[in-house]
Amino acid sequence: MLNIALFGPPGAGKGTQSEFLIQKYKLYYISTGDILRKEIAKGTELGLQAKNIIEEGGLAPDEIIVQIIEKTIKENSDAKGFLFDGFPRTYIQAYILEGLMIKLNTTLNCLISLEVDKEESVKRLLIRGETSGRTDDTEEVIRYRLVEYDNKTRPVLQFYKERGIYIPVNGQQNIEKVSKDIDDIVQEELHKSLFNIVLFGYPGSGRGSQGRALAKKYGLEFVATGPMLDQEIKKQSPIGKEIKSLYESGQLVPDHLVVQLIEKKLEQSKGVKGFIFKGFPRTLVQSYILDGLLKKHGSSISMVVDIEVPTLELISRLDARSKTDSCMPYDNSTVKIVKRLQEHEIKTVPVITKYNQLHGVTKIDGEGDFEEVFERVSKEVDQGIKRMR
């Protein structure tokens, strides 16, 4: 998710640049004035509270503002990100937004400040007053608004400077150059985002070999639960000993052990471009766990891929593998192979359905040799990266 706060004194061109960001990056625009008016017009409880205060000559308090912003974000959770205009206006509101972002498991990526000197702002707004007929664009009113901006909003910039996400842009350049500078900043922020793929497919679909090849091509970390569990057993770690005991007694490895290993992997894989998850999530419960783990680390699922292969072809492939050194204990007979396919149908297909509703699932024809399938998957991943950027 891409969250940006756009700052600038009156006349800096925030309206123009907001429109540019909204259109190009499909961000949801949050202006405190706009969302207040919407709540009042809809007659919501928060809107009525704000209306009563405003009608008495007061300003809507931060307590109401933050609730309306939180409500707006939750109601538009499928947005690619949010553009904040007019919030935070004060140092206190900066703390409020930071706390709200933490509560919603996200963060403000950057604050972009359009830097325009005072006399240039006055000049621009006087011209606007002459052409638009706005009666409030008089020099006296303009200079008062600029003083208000300096007194109340400049401290907010210092707040974000201390957090290292304040980025100034020369707002006195022409519109196209300002947009280009802003675009460069956003692109840099997007390149910091992890590209995470969840790779699905029935046993025998080739998702393991495809996942490893994709990880190598795109510089992603391959996360497969099976090898991770085996590695812990080889290391004879406390978790490994517990897993070995479960294997020997014929029990499944519980989610809490798998989650520990995946979280450890996420924490240790610093500097990676993203992850490819194979073999997790297998169940709806695990899908909620993965969503939570990624959110905890400031990330999310970027793409879901499902490699499709006809059932008879899957049985043929697994039967052939059972006669090689790559044979797995769970596919050394036709009965076991069919059971595995049924298990995927019952437990994992509902996960794919869920992700299709939330993210959309990219279906890949898994028939043909490795190179043919890899070319198809790579083409879709290229498009996925392009959409994210």
Outline the structure in words.
This protein is an alpha/beta fold. The protein folds into 2 domains: 2-27 and 79-192, Rossmann fold (3-Layer(aba) Sandwich), CATH 3.40.50; 197-223 and 271-388, 3-Layer(aba) Sandwich (Rossmann fold). Helix content is 60%, strand content 13%. It contains 16 helices and 10 strands. The chain has helices at residues 14-25, 32-42, 45-55, 62-75, 91-103, 118-132, 139-162, 175-192, 207-218, 225-235, 238-248, 255-268, 284-296, 311-321, 334-358, 370-388, and strands at residues 2-7, 28-31, 81-85, 110-115, 166-170, 197-201, 221-224, 275-278, 303-308, 361-365. The chain has a 5-stranded parallel β-sheet, sandwiched between helices. The chain has a 5-stranded parallel β-sheet with strand order 7-8-6-9-10. Helix 6 packs across helix 7. The radius of gyration is 27 Å and the shape is elongated. The chain starts with a strand and ends with a helix.
Comma- or semicolon-separated keywords:
alpha/beta, Rossmann fold, 389 residues, 13% strand, five-stranded parallel β-sheet, elongated, 2 domains
* Name of the CATH architecture of the largest domain: 3-Layer(aba) Sandwich
Provide the helix percentage.
55-70%
Largest sheet: 5 strands, parallel
Low-confidence stretches: none
SS field, number of helical segments: 16
Strand content: 5-15%
Instruction: Tell the overall outline.
Output: elongated
Entry summary:
The protein is an alpha/beta fold. It has 16 helices and ten strands.
Topology, element by element:
Layout: E1 2-7, H1 14-25, E2 28-31, H2 32-42, H3 45-55, H4 62-75, E3 81-85, H5 91-103, E4 110-115, H6 118-132, H7 139-162, E5 166-170, H8 175-192, E6 197-201, H9 207-218, E7 221-224, H10 225-235, H11 238-248, H12 255-268, E8 275-278, H13 284-296, E9 303-308, H14 311-321, H15 334-358, E10 361-365, H16 370-388
